[in-house]
Amino acid sequence: MSLDLDSGVARRIIETVGTHGVPPEYGFQYFTAGLDPYLSVIEKEYLASFIREGGSAFKMVIGAYGGGKTHFLYCIRDLAWKHNFVVSYVRLSPTESPFHSLDRVYGAIVKGLTIPLSPEELLSGYERGIKSFLRSWFSIRQQDLKSKGFFGDDLHEEFLREIEQIEIVESLSFARAVKGALRCLLEGRSEGFECICQWLNGEPYDRKTHGHYGIFQRIDRTTAFSMIRSLVQWIRQVGYSGLVILLDEAEQTPSLSTRQKGEHLSNLREIIDECGHTGFQGVFILYAVPDENFLEGRTQVYEALRQRLGTVFNTLNPTGVKINLEELPLQGVELLMEIGENLKRIYELAYSCVLDSNISQDMVRRVAEAAYNQRFGDIGYKRLFVQKCIQALHFLREKGQPPSLAELQM
């Protein structure tokens, strides 16, 4: 099997996976295994149809730390881009974007906005966030208008007309901010553009500064949902299919106070309910967590959430909410073996070498079995496997023979 991949990219994949055990932003697809049954259903039932036609949905992805949650979310991101969705990947954390503080989650969503990107753009580095989004749309529309014969004053007037046609129903301040930012770009007023984007990012409101642009609303926990709805409405207005929000719970919540935990659960319930409202259109939200322990409680909010999160997603029940990465059709050692074989092909390309297939296959199986036997340990067995697999491939390339499990410290 040949890989449509150059050796430099292959080397970066091996470095990222071998060092940290995490998927690179580009290249993860070359060693993806076992996810197709879930991904094909999500693409067919949601991204290619229901969501782009104005529906909205929420899914909870369950996978242990090092169990492939981020890899799965990256796969969803690429499928969403394929169908012209804007994507925001948010790594939730108690300090920067805690789920119990919805206004900060809104800010993280806005700062994570990414339009569909090519492999070249992903590899060369790219900007994300509302500023990049506005500049990108401005540039695309400007080029489009020029191709239609608009130049000079005519271009300026036509662009102003398009800006004024932007109608965002939910929040007047959000609409004014977007229009003001685009006018600043059109007129070369960088300071005004930065000021407006500061507000759009959910940073502190200054009535004197922001009021100059017709912005009279603070972004706080009472207005965060309105801002998210306005954001999605605008994204759809300017020609994208909608917004896919990928929330990755980087740390679990045992350190939260009782009040914060209650707000966390309440916000989650509100997000789930929002996806059932007709006014929330073109939104697909995936919330990735390591387990369901945060649902263990006896108050009413716990029971309400358990009811909303009770159904299980699979190929026969796409409307189910819970996507459990430990219940994929391909699991255990066989799954790891397929990942390992894919990594071996990438490795050979990265280091311009050919490893003996029989020796490497047996080596990968032994590493897979050893990693799977540690599936109840602190480190996710999938992460442990890919790191040790790369280490074993290094050993085989240098020594000409496979390492023992003791040499791999397994």
Q: What this model shows, in words?
A:
- The protein is of the alpha/beta class and 410 residues long.
- It has three domains: 1-33 and 330-410, no CATH class; 35-105 and 241-327, Rossmann fold (3-Layer(aba) Sandwich); 122-239, no CATH class.
- Helices cover 53% and strands 8% of the residues.
- It contains 16 helices and six strands.
- It has helices spanning 7-20, 36-50, 69-82, 102-111, 119-124, 130-147, 152-164, 172-187, 190-200, 207-211, 224-237, 258-274, 300-308, 332-350, 357-372, 381-399; strands spanning 56-62, 86-92, 113-114, 243-249, 283-289, 322-324.
- The protein has a six-stranded mixed β-sheet with strand order 3-2-4-5-1-6, with helices on both faces.
- The longest helix has 19 residues, at 332-350.
- The relative contact order is 0.15.
